[in-house]
Amino acid sequence: xxxxxxxxxxxLVKPDAIQRGLFGAITSRFEQKGLKLVGVKMMALDEAxxxxxxxxxxxxxxxPGLAKFMQSTPVIAMCWEGLDVVxxxxxxxxxxxxxxxxxxxxxxxxxxxxxxxxxxxSDSVANAAAEVKRFFKGGEIHGYDKSEYVNVYAEDExxx
Length: 160
Ligand code: DAT
Ligand code: MG
Prior knowledge:
four-stranded antiparallel β-sheet, Alpha-Beta Plaits, alpha+beta, globular, binds magnesium ion, binds 2'-deoxyadenosine-5'-diphosphate
């Protein structure tokens, strides 16, 4: 069986979650899963970063509303690390439309809307790498030993 690849991924805690006081509950999900937090900051998003981040949606009629929503409060950007973490975090996040997202997922448990769906999560390894760079400067991503890793992964997974 493949041992897994150590990856980093980007999560944004969106304005609806900030307003509803869900930051702690959302962060707990990732912590409880055994993921390692390597970067976190609160930031206001400008039009330029939103155009880049949502470039795949720039032509959609809902883009202006999406940009306005994402600027309605600062967001909290987090970088999480772990084996195959990009895919794991997408699974924990759930599908875009909150009211149809699987129960147990973050969107499934905390949201009802397509646009107010509490978090963003990178959708591929390539996009995750670009998004972590977009939201964090080099010095804002931290390396450290996570002591609980010996109980999160088997030894052969850790040393792969
Ligand atoms: P995801 O966030 O699940 O990766 P996406 O990349 O297709 O979904 O879209 C990014 C965000 O844009 C999504 O979280 C909410 C918003 N959005 C997508 N489709 C929408 C729609 N039909 N109406 C309103 N907002 C939408
Ligand atoms: Mg997306």
